[in-house]
Write a structure and sequence with these properties.
Helix content: 40-55%
CATH topology of the largest domain: Rossmann fold
Shape: globular
CATH class of the largest domain: Alpha Beta
Radius of gyration: 20 Å
Structural class: alpha/beta
Largest sheet: 7 strands, mixed
Number of strands: 9
Bound molecules: S-adenosylmethionine
Number of helices: 14
CATH superfamily of the largest domain: Vaccinia Virus protein VP39
């Protein structure tokens, strides 16, 4: 049997949270290979508006559009602008929003897209295939700026050392490929056997920066909150702690809990709640799912209902 281009992560769990209904309107903010959209369209006689910033994902999704005969509409753009994209379709409210943050297997597996440090390809990393590339950042940014990006978005303790090595190397020759960059990082970061590859965190940082992923997530969550009907649900799957923290904080703030601004004030301040959390702790994949799809390992699902 042909291997699917992308195995949807936590699919059953996301569908349980969203629970599509006949006549409902749903947003799949990260269409990818369409795993979530397909499952929602099969679960009920509903309509799905699916967004992806990658033109390849939209082009490859046309077969699914035809299969579902008018119930699936693909929108090319970012989920950070989901409200505007839906409003342009004359949709003001929806019954559910699904987000599966990050890159798809198709994007990682295509070496030329530059997301993987295990395959040689152009140092690109742009999901949208336009704008600033990872090569632009690595070859043009100042040493401090690079170190800050690697530290903030990669949580990399050797960020300064890596930035210095990048700047020193590029004086001789600019970076143009993933393996070239990975080798320079590996040459300055201590590596214990069985540890993750030393390039992992820097590649994560560059990807997040190039695609403005954390800001996209913040705007996407606000867009979902604005679009959801009362009783509508959002389900968000994220893959690392920076993203999960944003989702957790957003849901907690919108459910009426804000961080204590001063130790002299009561523990929590009540604000008008717009969301009810449905997952106290994030839902994680079963060991069986991780075995079948190692890319699911770090996934975390949080969901909330619009009040
Ligand atoms: C993990 S994949 C989604 C896979 C999908 N759930 C499936 O089952 O096939 C993430 C997809 O979201 C897209 N994406 C990531 N960030 C985005 C954003 N801010 N706006 C729109 N699409 C985005 C990527 O291009 C990629 O195709």
């Amino acid at each position: 049997m042909k291997k699917p281009p992308h195995i949807p992560v936590l699919l059953k769990e996301v569908m349980e949270q969203i629970s599509p209904k006949d006549g409902g309107i749903y947003v799949d903010g990260t269409f990818g290979a369409g795993g979530y959209s397909r499952a929602a369209l099969q679960a009920a006689d509903c309509k799905v508006y699916a967004i992806d910033r990658d033109p390849d994902a939209i082009a490859n999704g046309q077969a699914l559009v035809e299969e579902f005969d008018g119930r699936l509409k693909l929108l090319h753009g970012t989920f950070g602008k989901m409200k505007e994209l839906l409003n342009d379709e004359e949709i003001e409210h929806v019954d559910g929003v699904m987000l599966d943050i990050g890159v798809s297997s198709m994007q990682i597996d295509q070496a030329e897209r530059g997301f993987s440090f295990q395959k040689d390809g152009a140092l690109d990393m742009r999901m949208s295939q336009n704008g600033l590339s990872a090569a632009d950042v690595v070859n043009k940014y100042g040493e401090k700026e690079l170190a800050d990006i690697i530290y903030l978005y990669g949580e990399e303790r050797y960020s300064r050392r890596i930035a210095a090595a990048i700047v020193s190397r590029r004086r001789e020759r600019a970076f143009s490929t993933t393996l070239d960059l990975a080798d320079v990082i590996r040459s300055v970061v201590p590596h214990k056997k069985d540890d993750i590859d030393p390039a992992t965190r820097t590649f994560q940082a560059l990807r997040i920066y190039v695609n403005d992923e954390l800001e996209q997530l913040r705007s996407g969550l606000s867009g979902a909150e604005a679009l959801l009907n009362h009783g509508g649900r959002m389900a968000v799957v994220s893959f690392h702690s920076l993203e999960d923290r944003i989702v957790k904080t957003f849901i907690s703030e919108k459910s009426g809990k804000t961080a204590r601004p001063s130790r002299y004030l009561p523990d929590v301040q009540e604000t008008v709640a717009t969301l009810k959390p449905l997952t106290k702790k994030p839902i994680v994949p079963s060991s069986q799912e991780c075995l079948e799809n190692p890319r699911a390992r770090s996934a975390r699902l949080r969901s909330a209902e619009r009040l």
